[in-house]
Automatic annotation (TrEMBL):
One of its GO terms (cellular component) is cytoplasm. This is Phosphoserine phosphatase. Its cofactor is Mg(2+). The lineage of its organism: Bacteria, Pseudomonadati, Pseudomonadota, Gammaproteobacteria, Aeromonadales. The active site is at residues 125, 127. The gene is serB. Keywords: Amino-acid biosynthesis, Hydrolase, Magnesium, Metal-binding, Serine biosynthesis.
């Protein structure tokens, strides 16, 4: 039996009973039972409370593009509501068109999504992604060079400076600082909202979870111990006689390194790239986001917002779990 849109509840998660928990096709202003014969793309809408208006606005964009739509699921994941749609066609331009109408919800419009019921890998940035701070800025503030270092950090994350150059400049400014500052910052390091829910959900799915950070090893290892992460990769600050020397030891974890780490970890665990997710916020994360099957920019800088496959601006890391369970 067909259902008119205006007959359905204002809250999308309440549509389950009305639609008899079955897939439905959108045709000429109403839903009717059925499946698309061929799926070329997926659209997921997410919000704390997902309204019918979010779906209406998205359907108008899809109708104008001549795309047929199948509503495959509505669900609550990690306390957030989502609607999952299959699309008869997909193009990169769809993301921009849908973002223009997204007033109070997040979305992902992609050719495909990883499957939650198969092994997978999530690789995430640390500073301003897994945690709410930039650790080097916090160290610099305690060392009395906060403003100088923070300015370079902003330029690097916005893509105005090569990451390796920016890191060496920032670390050089820390020369002579007491290494005890590192433990002080670790002691007050705030997790990003949704991080614990994401990691717990991924572990329940049997997925691998790792960090690739342009930050520093002590902070990444603290998170690994706290959350039980499978691996962490970060930079090493040189310390002599209890003081920071202003040098970084070894190769820097830059944009290329992050993308390579994703490929190498996937290969190590026998995980296809189609089952990988990358999460980050800065320009140095873009190659990693592009390398993964699903690249998610979290509360990202403008350049990253433009180039990332998926942007989460209203939800936090729990939204990634929603995307993975949307199928």
């Amino acid at each position: 039996m067909a259902l008119l849109l205006n007959e359905l509840p204002e809250r999308v998660v309440e549509w389950k009973d009305a639609l008899a928990q079955q897939s439905c096709l959108w045709r000429e202003g109403e839903w009717e039972a059925g499946h698309l014969p061929e799926v070329k793309g997926r659209l997921v809408l997410l919000a704390e409370r997902l309204s019918k208006q979010a779906l209406v606005a998205s359907l108008q964009v899809l109708d104008e593009a001549g795309i047929r739509v199948e509503l495959s699921a509505v669900a609550v994941v990690a306390g957030r509501e989502l609607a999952s749609l299959r699309l008869s066609a997909w193009s990169p331009a769809l993301k921009a068109a849908l973002q223009q109408v997204a007033t109070d919800w997040d979305l992902a419009c992609v050719p495909s999504l990883p499957s939650a019921d198969k092994p997978g890998l999530v690789l995430m940035d640390m500073d301003s992604t897994a945690i709410q701070i930039e650790c080097i800025d916090e160290i610099a503030a305690l060392a009395g060079v906060g403003e100088e270092v923070a300015a370079v950090t902003r330029a690097a994350m916005e893509g105005a400076l090569p990451f390796s150059e920016s890191l060496r400049r920032r670390v050089a400014a820390l020369a002579g600082a007491d290494a005890g500052i590192i433990d002080e910052v670790i002691g007050r390091m705030p997790l990003m909202p949704g991080l614990t829910e994401l990691v717990a959900g991924l572990k329940a799915m049997g997925w691998k979870v790792a960090i690739a950070s342009g930050g520093f090893v002590p902070f990444a290892r603290h998170l690994q111990q706290q959350l039980g992460l499978d691996a962490v990769f970060a930079n090493t600050l040189e310390i002599r006689d209890g003081k920071l020397t202003g040098e970084v030891l070894g190769a820097i974890v830059d944009a290329d390194a992050k993308a390579n780490i994703l490929v190498e970890l996937a290969h190590e665990h026998g995980i296809p790239i189609a089952q990988t997710v990358a999460i980050g916020d800065g320009a140095n994360d873009l190659k990693m986001l592009a390398q993964a099957c699903l690249g998610v920019a979290l509360h990202a800088k403008p350049l990253v917002q433009q180039q990332a496959p998926v942007c989460l601006n209203r939800l936090s890391l729990e939204g990634v779990l929603g995307l993975l369970q949307a199928r």
